[in-house]
Amino acid sequence: MGATIVEKPEEAVAESDVVIVMLSSGPVCDEMLLGPNGLLNAMQRDATLIVMSSIPVDTARRQAEEAAKSQINYLDAPVSGGEQGAVDGTLAIMVGGDAVSFKAVEPILLSLGRPVHVGPAGSGELAKLANQMIVANTIATVAEAILLAEQGGANPERMLSALEGGFADSTILRIHGQRMIQENFTPGGPAKWQLKDTQTAMAFADTLHLKLPVSSLVNTLFEELVDQGDGELDHSALINQLRRRND
């Protein structure tokens, strides 16, 4: 496909106008970007760095400040859509940073999915936290609904069909509901990464003195799930923890 293979990350970025990183966490991003051999030291001036990792809002803001010191444009651009969205190039891309920098790289992001500029640096991560809260809370509600159907004597699969097109219908209901019924927890999005994001959301809410009781409870359920050794399973495996609570 025309790619050039190099030995070190800093070699990959040295002559690049646009650099995209998608790594597992804030500390890993910091190590890659800000360490002694960090990418910010190796990148060209006026290049654009796009961080597509799900990291804390404050981490993105701090990285943007460090990038500015090196005259590098910074965008935080986490994504949603799962593995299939990446394969299909249909990811939801939530972008924070300078609007001019966003416009300059929008054609690149459009090849990956649907980018939307949300606001200044950190805003993309804030939108991703909102996304992950909605995803986690909806997974928990779908799991409870399936348990209710099972225990109440209804056919859960037929229930999902009956709900299609109604207000309760959603991608999570259709896809993850089937995963739960079939107990197919091959990970698209591992539960451990869902927990990382819900914990990040709760920590950020604390800095704003917000009380989010529903999200707080769902975060606790994911903590229990991971503590039980199911962190590598798909996040729809949350139904396992609800079943344990009801044993």
UniProtKB/TrEMBL annotation:
Bilayer-crossing residues are none
Signal sequence segment: none
Q: Give the UniProt keywords, A-Z.
A: Oxidoreductase
3-hydroxyisobutyrate dehydrogenase-like NAD-binding domain: residues covered: 122-240
**Entry-linked Gene3D superfamilies:** N-(1-d-carboxylethyl)-l-norvaline Dehydrogenase, domain 2, NAD(P)-binding Rossmann-like Domain
Family matches, as InterPro entries: 6-PGluconate_DH-like_C_sf, 6PGD_dom2, 6PGDH_NADP-bd, HIBADH-like_NADP-bd, NAD(P)-bd_dom_sf
- Domain 6-phosphogluconate dehydrogenase NADP-binding positions: 2-117
One Pfam family hit: NAD_binding_2
Name the domain of life this protein comes from. Bacteria
Question: Can you say what this protein is called?
Answer: 3-hydroxyisobutyrate dehydrogenase
Q: Which organism is it from?
A: Vreelandella olivaria
